[in-house]
Amino acid sequence: MRVLLVEDDLRVASALTSALRRRGFEVIAATTVSEAATAGPVDLVLLDLNLPDRDGLELCRRIRRQDEDVAIIAVTARSEERDRVAGLRAGADDYVVKPFSMAELQARIEAVLRRTARAARVEETLEVGDLRVDLNARRVWLSGREVSLTRKEFELLMALARQAGTVVPRERLLMDVWQSTWNSGHTLDVHMAALRGKLDDAGLVETVRGVGYRLRAS
């Protein structure tokens, strides 16, 4: 379980990091919005809203746009009702006001993760023609034959399968798979070529020049 801890108070960040690691979490610590933006995929975000380079609400909205399923808990000294409402509307799943006990935070983490796990299980398998994608097991079959994919190849296929029949822009694929549009377009093309080769169906993934890629719906 990977946790992104965004907290600019180094004393608080150190204490939380130690406590979370003792509980078995892998912790990625960031003190600014800029650092948090490079953290990569995580399962849970603990987000202070008072950050030195930008408002944490802006980061919350950005994370939620990029990943609808990630759990986000705002952990902040902002205690007014309007602040809690703003945090929840920005995409946070829960809101914890400082100071708090680790027992309370642990309980809230468990509750949020239970909710997000239930939501994720709603969509366990995608079927597009002869293609079947098991999202939880991260396994793929084409015409009954299992296809072995790397993590990036699987995430590319998943992004296409979720919008089968429609064109997925290159920028959206880069954001979904690499959490950034800064990656070279060549990186996307190389991984897409490898995916096509493993699917062994030249027409299954179609290129829409200048726009993106589309998974054939039938």
Walk me through what this model shows.
There is one protein chain. By secondary structure, this protein is an alpha/beta fold. The protein has 2 domains: 120 residues, Rossmann fold (3-Layer(aba) Sandwich), CATH 3.40.50.2300; 91 residues, Winged helix-like DNA-binding domain superfamily/Winged helix DNA-binding domain (Arc Repressor Mutant, subunit A). It contains 8 helices and 12 strands. The chain has a 5-stranded parallel beta sheet with strand order 2-1-3-4-5, with helices on both faces. A 4-stranded antiparallel beta sheet has the order 6-7-8-9, with helices on one face. The protein has a 3-stranded antiparallel beta sheet with strand order 10-12-11. Strand 8 and strand 9 form a beta hairpin. The relative contact order is 0.09.
Element order: H for helix, E for strand:
EHEHEHEHEHEEEEHEHHEE
Bulk shape: elongated
Helix amount: 40-55%
Proportion of β residues?
15-25%
Number of helices: 8
Secondary structural class: alpha/beta
Number of domains: 2
> Largest beta sheet, briefly?
5 strands, parallel
Strand order of the largest sheet: 2-1-3-4-5
Span of the ends, CA to CA = 36 Å
DSSP strand count: 12
What would the CATH topology of the largest domain be?
Answer: Rossmann fold
Mean pLDDT: 88
Q: Low-confidence spans: pLDDT under 50, at least 5 residues?
A: none
CATH superfamily of the largest domain: Response regulator
